Amino acid sequence: MAERGGAPRRRRQEEPRGGGRGEPSQSRRGAGDAAQPEPDGAPATPDFRCHRLQDSLLSSASGYSNYRGILNWCVVMLVLSNARLFLENLIKYGILVDPIQVISLFLKDPYSWPSLCLVIVANVFALAALHTEKRLATGSLSERSGTVLHTINLLTILCFPALVVLAVNSITPVGAVFTLAVHTILFLKLFSFKDVNKWCRERRRAKGVPAHSGAASGLQRANGDVPPSGGVSYPANLTYRDMYYFLFAPTLCYELNFPRSPRIRKRFLLRRLFEMLFFLQLLVGLIQQWMVPTIQNSMKPFRDMDYSRIIERLLKLAVPNHLIWLIFFYWFFHSSLNVIAEVMQFGDREFYRDWWNSETVTYFWQNWNIPVHKWCLRHFYKPMIKRGMGKWTAQTAVFLASAFFHEYLVSVPLKMFRLWAFMGMMAQIPLAWFVSRFLRGNYGNAAVWMSLIIGQPIAVLMYVHDYYVLNYEGRQ
Amino acid sequence: MAERGGAPRRRRQEEPRGGGRGEPSQSRRGAGDAAQPEPDGAPATPDFRCHRLQDSLLSSASGYSNYRGILNWCVVMLVLSNARLFLENLIKYGILVDPIQVISLFLKDPYSWPSLCLVIVANVFALAALHTEKRLATGSLSERSGTVLHTINLLTILCFPALVVLAVNSITPVGAVFTLAVHTILFLKLFSFKDVNKWCRERRRAKGVPAHSGAASGLQRANGDVPPSGGVSYPANLTYRDMYYFLFAPTLCYELNFPRSPRIRKRFLLRRLFEMLFFLQLLVGLIQQWMVPTIQNSMKPFRDMDYSRIIERLLKLAVPNHLIWLIFFYWFFHSSLNVIAEVMQFGDREFYRDWWNSETVTYFWQNWNIPVHKWCLRHFYKPMIKRGMGKWTAQTAVFLASAFFHEYLVSVPLKMFRLWAFMGMMAQIPLAWFVSRFLRGNYGNAAVWMSLIIGQPIAVLMYVHDYYVLNYEGRQ
């Protein structure tokens, strides 16, 4: 027991020497010694002590807990193992990247451009909505029939392109996805457009301003309704200029006076533009080089229903798929949307929030895609709440709607209705419940990451597999 | 510009509502809102504002910097990708683990146990050293001839087993490594033993105590030289009991009175014992299942000098190799040494320090293997410094010695002298210089990890390749 008493004494003796004894790497050594003095064999100490009564760092008895080195270890391991994967891929398949092939994804027959035509036609719906609103503003159209017209218009926006895609053969899946995406965005924008204008009319009516006088925007400017910043107010906003600014603006929620950035920052714009082009190339490259071969290799196991191999393929696919998703996120939500916003001097650049820290699935869905989230909240969730629906019901409805659009964007272009995307989205509800119920903090965060990394490739494989079976197996 | 002024005002308006609006995932949402209020479309706000002038989180303009989610991402990615690797391995090779094969690594011919014999013979050297010391203590042997005898004894410890290994054919590489390791440890221990006793005699002479009286340990106990804790003092320590306690103690530095732990902690001992057995199995399993096939696959690329494949193999080998090294570290330095120490009630459990945080290569070498580092410092580095050598010279000498022993433990058992291990150790000096010169903090730490993860498999592949070429290519 005397040893225990002895240990601290010896430590105190050594400390001064510890710092002084210049060890090879002075900088770190000095620090190291202050903490734990070097065993010292100098004949000065009583019978040449060089051991002390102490515990190993990793045994719980020593209250040690500094493992910041581990993060660096993780990063190094990740970089190295993925470097290997990529090298292996190059060796196995050679270079598969070719930009020409990309064009063929959009064009099957170089003399018919169905996707482009559809996008051009889309303008009709926008103008229809604008004119309906104009008629409504002047009061030459009743609210009732206005709502009917808008509803018809909006439904057509969704159905028409879908039918065309299903009918026309010269349209490629990729081209179809692009077209349908454009129409979906248009749908959401016009839905918001009609809502906001309706709210304006309601307020005007509440203020008791007669409908017909509304046309004279000069009068409007005069009255106190105009915000201090001096933007347009209700009927004055129903112009082509205003409409098209909204259609191209990187948002889905209409508002009469968007916040505008004071000037176009040249350097910022150029940097984003460069990113936009670079990451687009990278995405195409990664998909051609990494995704496609991996998916093709995973067809056989699927046919044979060889489960261990299916899982192996799934995990193998998860890495490139996740990487591509991350790059896509940055490319679209940061680079591209910022470029558009900068060019249009659109002020609100909040296209995403810190979803990477999300500890619940709900938090992720509320923060990774702000334009859509904003729209759902403003034009779907809150109206339902106002109508006295329960929160969970409303949230489920939102997920249902989003599930519908996911399915719409995948099934129609592939011309097969499998509901994988739909189920994938709906699966989020029980998942969200489970995570928020049982997992906290970092575990919750890890669970969210896990669901992202594993969830997507499952859906992807499902569709690709079915697509192959339909279009290639059939022919053999 | 009015917008800029407007933004903060609007924010202030929204904040209170933000918190109150019960969103689906209440817990996180509340926090989220306080930080960035939800865009609000309630007709209360002047013409239905739902956008604010603001930057994207990832653009430098927004001073955002909370990426703690990334660590979780790293961990998840690592777990998943290695799970895949392991599954792939199982599918490819099936289960290769078999414990019987392990025995064959130690025994070639079941009727001759050369390794064991050598280990038994090792006692002779220990006793020789003890008796020399006894003679020196009583003064019946001159310091001069004592030094000569010790030197001969120590040299024999290194040369004899090496010669036997090279001569006897029935000895397996693994057995040989084991034997040579035992002898190396003995060498270091006896070196320390002779040094400490020499220091004791020097001090006694300085105090002017006549040599022959030293024999009577009773007298010694009486004099003030004895530490308060009442341990033995100089010549009384030269007993078989004392000697063998030192030989089995988990340290290389001799000392007359080792710090002793008060009692054997049963639970601690059992936990460490379990770890010891479990990790040993795991190590064997991983080597058989993961290392061996990977190495065998990497022989062909080496023969063909196909560089891209060599690198691919190297990186593929790096992961299991590193994992095994980490497990080995824990198994040996934490579990095993703690078991021995607990059984012998050896007090000083500092077998390693926080090398995982090391930001310079030197710091790593000074902290991952404390018994050896202690020995080098006490019996090699400091004496050289005392003799007035420069710090860098001394450090280089230490690396040289360590390089020699690394080579000794590898080349002799494999019966081929390639100097890979030697060069590997010597390469640490420029590396250490480079890292400490150019890399700081986390970069230094990452560099150390990198050198560990990449450096080892290179050396391993070099030896294995040469061994294969020698023993298998030759026969074909």
From TrEMBL, chains A, B:
Question: Where does the UniProt annotation locate this protein?
Answer: Endoplasmic reticulum membrane
**How the protein sits in the membrane?**
Multi-pass membrane protein
Protein name listed in UniProt? O-acyltransferase
Residue stretches spanning the membrane: 70-91, 111-130, 151-168, 174-193, 273-292, 323-341, 392-411, 417-435, 447-465
Molecular function (GO) terms listed?
diacylglycerol O-acyltransferase activity; retinol O-fatty-acyltransferase activity
Gene designation: DGAT1
Binding partners and assembly: Homodimer or homotetramer; both forms have similar enzymatic activities.
Q: One GO BP annotation here?
A: triglyceride biosynthetic process
Q: Which reaction does it catalyse?
A: 1,2-di-(9Z-octadecenoyl)-glycerol + (9Z)-octadecenoate + H(+) = 1,2,3-tri-(9Z-octadecenoyl)-glycerol + H2O; 2-(9Z-octadecenoyl)-glycerol + hexadecanoyl-CoA = 1-hexadecanoyl-2-(9Z-octadecenoyl)-sn-glycerol + CoA; hexadecan-1-ol + hexadecanoyl-CoA = hexadecyl hexadecanoate + CoA; 1-O-(9Z-octadecyl)-3-(9Z-octadecenoyl)-glycerol + (9Z)-octadecenoyl-CoA = 1-O-(9Z-octadecenyl)-2,3-di-(9Z-octadecenoyl)glycerol + CoA
List the Pfam families hit by this protein, alphabetically: MBOAT
User: What family name appears in the similarity comment?
Assistant: Belongs to the membrane-bound acyltransferase family. Sterol o-acyltransferase subfamily.
